[in-house]
Design brief:
mainly alpha, Tetracycline Repressor, domain 2, about 0% strand, transcription cis-regulatory region binding, Regulatory protein TetR, HTH_TetR
């Protein structure tokens, strides 16, 4: 907490006025990064009504977050924190991204809620896994190529999913 206070430019007592413990501070930092990721993904999804471009924009949002906010990425997707409160926050960030995609899948596809949710979870999961691989492998290809490759994978998968009637 001493080091954090120094970096924040405040005294340790001031830090403890806002965060009673290291865990509370850690959760606040995780929440801040998670909110940014979710906002970025939501913003990307709303940039166009063209679904192929939405996929591209959402994948790019994941890669940008991991590339631009590496400490946030590590806190959310590579954390070894075992505290249940932290785990809930991390899971909540992923679920919020799935929720954003799920709403669009439901709206645009006519699929039932379960298929829509499964599809949304798969899209988000593949984006996260590919972006993590790209960073953990020390960015073996440029980001634009990594985004394009991931978006092509997702779009290819989506193209094979027939539109389902809502009452299936």
């Amino acid at each position: 907490m001493d080091e954090i206070a120094i970096h924040a430019g405040v005294s340790k007592p001031v830090l403890y006025q806002h965060f009673p413990s290291k865990l509370d501070l850690y959760i606040a930092v995780v929440d801040s990064h998670a909110e940014k990721l979710v906002a970025d993904v939501n913003r990307a999804l709303l940039t166009t009504a063209d679904n192929r471009q939405r996929v591209q924009a959402a994948v790019e949002a994941f890669f940008d977050f991991i590339d631009d906010d590496n400490s946030g990425y590590r806190l959310i997707f590579a954390s070894d924190a075992m505290d249940p409160a932290v785990i809930r926050r991390v899971e909540g960030a992923t679920e919020a991204c799935v929720d954003a995609v799920y709403g669009l899948v439901m709206q645009d596809s006519g699929m039932d809620p379960y298929r829509s949710r499964m599809l949304a979870a798969g899209l988000v999961g593949a984006s996260v896994v590919n972006a993590r691989y790209w960073v953990d492998a020390s960015r073996p290809i440029d980001k634009a190529s990594a985004v394009d490759t991931t978006a092509a994978l997702l779009w290819g998968g989506l193209a094979g999913v027939p539109k389902q009637p809502a009452d299936d």
